[in-house]
Design brief:
The chain is of the alpha+beta class and 393 residues long. The chain folds into two domains: 6-225, Rossmann fold (3-Layer(aba) Sandwich); 238-364, RNA polymerase II/Efflux pump adaptor protein, barrel-sandwich hybrid domain (OB fold (Dihydrolipoamide Acetyltransferase, E2P), Beta Barrel). It has helices at 44-52, 94-104, 109-122, 138-150, 168-185, 196-202, 220-225, 230-235, 366-378, 387-390; strands spanning 6-15, 18-28, 33-37, 59-64, 67-68, 79-82, 156-160, 189-193, 205-210, 213-218, 240-250, 253-258, 262-268, 281-286, 292-295, 307-318, 322-329, 332-339, 349-354, 359-363. The longest helix is centred in the middle third of the chain and has 18 residues, at 168-185. The structure holds adenosine-5'-triphosphate and magnesium ion. Magnesium ion (MG) binds at residues 44-45.
Length: 393
């Protein structure tokens, strides 16, 4: 058996001028739940459709179970696709819908019956076999669509926002059910969603896409805790992003300098550390839940090597279980999250602290630096960088 069920190498797809998928490479192991996550229009569906054979790449290579599938039609690829809008046959019963693919493959009737019953049991619809699609709820229709694909025992199941049409509560329940079924069968899934929480809940691996490219691929913990780009940091969960300059790096201890807040300690991400240059523009990323907030009185702000910033609370939002505070310091607004109701109020001066290991310093891309420079020369107002920082790199 091949080490990977699906392999994409430098796959490119353009529609006219637009590069919808831009040199995407991806390896999917047997039994893995891989999610393509990203904002609308980033190329998720196009990537999935190329794996399924509904679209052909302009360049690059797609292997399924080790075989190059260029020119192989969808039905001969050992893949099956589950669509957001279910695409059930309205005139057929649930059981007939599920059996359809097996009938097309000329499977013996007795085996079709057994496999259909098994699939119905798997999705908890054993007593619904003789209903028509219009007699089902949205969640039930999606389960039929899932059973119809699973019954074919494909090497990889492709799912394009399969829960997109369901309301929040049934969606949460279906996420767990889907994950259960996937694990129970050891079925390889490639799953498309733009819902961050959904991707964290369900995936073994998440590929975060932006503008046709994969910006980072890793386990949910990896991509959340050590984002490799500012886009990943802010798309997956919330993140305070500060712009400034990387000043010093010595082993694990790194100093970032913000033009107004001064020096802040942080750490480099192993994946991008080599792209970070001392005295070059950089981003400083720290998540609200990693920031502690305390009153100013009777406090030693630099205790235990923490990073700290003093500011004034401008907003307090209770979110059930946690409270979010927006704290203004210099020209920056920093969001902090505390457990429980939180007693601090707008107008209070506070100190925010966090551990340097919880703050990731990322290089600023050449593209972003150039955009900033162009904007700074276009309008005569000073940009967000000190003159010193924008003159470099
Ligand atoms: N058949 C097509 N012809 C022209 N442009 C297309 C076609 N299919 C997709 N595109 C464009 O390619 C880009 C990527 O589209 P794609 O459907 O892959 O995005 P997506 O990530 O699935 O977005 P969404 O979350 O909205 O479904 C978009 O800009 C889209 O308009
Ligand atoms: Mg899509």
């Amino acid at each position: 058996m091949a080490e990977y069920v699906v392999q994409l190498t430098e796959v490119v797809k353009s529609f006219g001028e637009l590069r919808a998928v831009d040199r995407v490479s991806l390896n999917v192991r047997p039994g893995e739940f891989l999610t393509l996550l990203g904002p609308s229009g980033c190329g998720k569906t196009t990537t999935l459709r190329m794996i399924g054979g509904f679209e052909s790449p302009d360049a690059g290579e797609i292997l399924i179970q080790g075989k190059n599938v260029t020119g192989v039609p969808p039905a001969e690829r050992n893949t099956s696709m589950v669509f957001q809008d279910y695409a059930l046959f309205p005139h057929m019963t649930v059981a007939e819908n599920i059996a359809f693919g097996l009938r097309m493959r000329k499977i013996p009737p007795r085996e079709i019956r057994a496999r259909t019953e098994e699939a119905l049991r798997l999705v908890n619809l054993s007593t619904y076999g003789s209903r028509k699609p219009h007699q089902l709820s949205g969640g039930q229709k999606q389960r039929v669509a899932l059973a119809r694909s699973l019954v074919l025992q494909p090497a990889v199941l492709l799912l394009d926002e399969p829960l997109g049409a369901l309301d929040a509560q049934i969606r949460k329940q279906m996420q767990l059910e889907l994950k259960n079924i996937q694990q129970q069968l050891g079925q390889t899934f490639i799953y498309v969603t733009h819902d961050q929480e959904e991707s964290l809940t369900m995936s073994d691996q998440i590929a975060i896409m932006n503008n046709g490219r994969i910006e980072q691929l890793g386990s949910p913990e990896e991509v959340y805790e050590t984002p490799a780009t500012p886009f990943v940091a802010s798309f997956l969960g919330d993140c305070n992003l500060l712009e400034g300059t990387l000043r010093e790096t010595c082993g694990n201890s790194t100093i970032f300098e913000h033009p107004r807040l001064g020096p802040l300690k942080g750490s480099l991400n192993a994946k991008t550390a080599t792209d970070c240059r001392v005295n070059s523009p950089a981003f400083y990323c720290v998540r609200p839940e990693n920031i502690s907030m305390r009153p100013v009185e009777g406090l030693d702000p630099v205790e235990a090597g923490l990073s700290s910033v003093k500011g004034v609370i401008t907003q307090r939002v209770y979110r059930g279980g946690v409270t979010r505070y927006v704290v203004r310091s210099g020209n920056e607004e920093i969001t902090a999250e505390t457990l429980g109701k939180g007693t601090a109020a707008p107008g209070e001066t506070v100190i925010l602290t966090w551990k340097p290991k919880d703050a990731v310093i990322l290089p600023m891309s050449q593209a972003k630096q150039q955009r900033d420079k162009a904007a700074a020369t276009e309008n005569s107002c000073p940009g967000r960088f000190s003159d010193e920082a924008s003159g470099e790199g």
